[in-house]
Specification:
With 326 residues, the protein is of the alpha+beta class. The protein is 20% helix and 30% strand. It has 5 helices and 17 strands. The strands form 4 sheets. Strands 6, 7, 8, 9, 10, 11, 14 and 17 form an 8-stranded mixed sheet that branches. Strands 1-15-16-4 form a 4-stranded mixed sheet. The longest helix is centred in the middle third of the chain and has 25 residues. About 2% of the residues have low confidence.
């Protein structure tokens, strides 16, 4: 019986390009190096937190032989828990196709699998920032949500300079020292928000020039924010942010309000020290022959990631209406 071929049959012709053309996809790995990074071996990892303490003025002199009471202030301890989720992906590469084709798809297959895992890495990062944080000795106390005071409403607008200034002010009013390199300031936005910034009518000339440089890729910094552009940022429905994705595309959730319609996007501002990310195992890839699959080639990749918000004051959610100027 003649061989009927496999998934690469269209390439069985006299000559084709030497590599596979990779179609457009959302790239992940946008947030690497933008948080406090660590490894994790067990199911959970715990991080203890320590609040501030207030000093009191000394109003009496310390006299030898006189009994003086030493001050004893209180200081709050707490603990946050992070867990990591495991992901993997595998693809079969038909050996007959491989022999009959002028291309070796293994490298491109692995690239696609690494991209798939990097998208999951970013989704875990986003969920850790915007989701409930596990607190307490065992991490099982009442989950802590990002408060409404840390949210800038969409106001039927896209991203504006005023929203950026408000987000920065929230952090500074909370006492966060943005001059500290550990508090490096980041913002994750969609491409639509960059376009909205550039189209803003009230942007003064210096701001406009800086935004133009941001759009052209000459800089990635504006108003002290280091910009990260991602299509994975979640949407907002009638009950709040929707932390779910289908095929790595953000879900719109249940929307009844005519003013929402699933078009509100949650952009995220955070300080580097405000987020902890953990990696159980970085992306590992293998390509080998499978004896149980007729000795065809099998490509496999896996990884384990997690993230937790360490401090609500260091995160601001900036909601934006993506229908503006649509």
């Amino acid at each position: 019986m003649a061989y009927t071929g496999g998934p690469l049959d269209p390439n069985f012709v006299n000559q084709f390009a030497s590599t596979l053309h990779l179609l457009t996809e959302t790239k992940g790995g946008k947030f690497a190096g933008k948080s406090m990074e660590d490894t994790i071996d067990g199911e959970y990892k715990f991080y203890d937190t320590l609040a501030s303490v207030t000093a009191s003025e000394v109003t009496t002199a310390s006299v030898s032989g006189t009994s003086n009471t030493s001050p004893i202030a209180s200081i709050a301890h707490d603990r946050r828990r992070v867990s990591a989720s495991s992901y993997d992906v595998g693809l079969m590469i038909d050996s007959q196709d491989k022999l009959r084709s002028l291309i070796d798809p293994s490298a491109e297959y692995v690239q696609r699998m690494v991209s798939a895992l990097n998208r999951k890495r970013d989704i875990e990062f986003i969920s850790g920032i915007l989701g409930n944080a596990s607190v307490g000795k065992a991490g099982t106390d009442t989950p802590v949500a990002l408060g409404s005071d840390q949210v800038i409403a969409n106001n039927n607008e896209g991203l504006t300079v005023a929203k950026l200034r408000e987000a920065r002010a929230k952090l500074e009013i909370a006492g966060i020292d943005l001059d500290d390199p550990m508090n490096a300031l980041y913002i994750a936005v969609t491409p639509k928000q960059i376009a909205d910034l550039l189209a803003e009518e009230n942007v003064i000339s210096s701001d406009y020039n800086n935004i133009q440089a941001l759009v052209s890729g000459k800089v990635n910094n504006f108003l002290g924010f280091n910009f990260c552009i991602s299509n994975l940022l979640p949407k907002v429905d009638d009950s709040g942010v929707v932390l779910s994705w289908t095929n790595d595309a953000p879900d719109a959730g249940t929307v009844a309000s005519p003013t929402t319609n699933g078009d509100i996007r949650s952009n995220i501002v955070w300080c580097k020290s405000g987020i902890r990310t953990v990696t159980g195992s970085d992306i590992k890839t293998e390509v080998e022959k499978r004896a149980d699959m007729r000795f065809n080639w099998y490509a496999y990749a896996s990884a384990r990631f997690g993230a937790v918000r360490m401090e609500e004051a260091k995160v601001v959610r900036v909601d934006c209406d993506e229908t503006v100027d649509a």
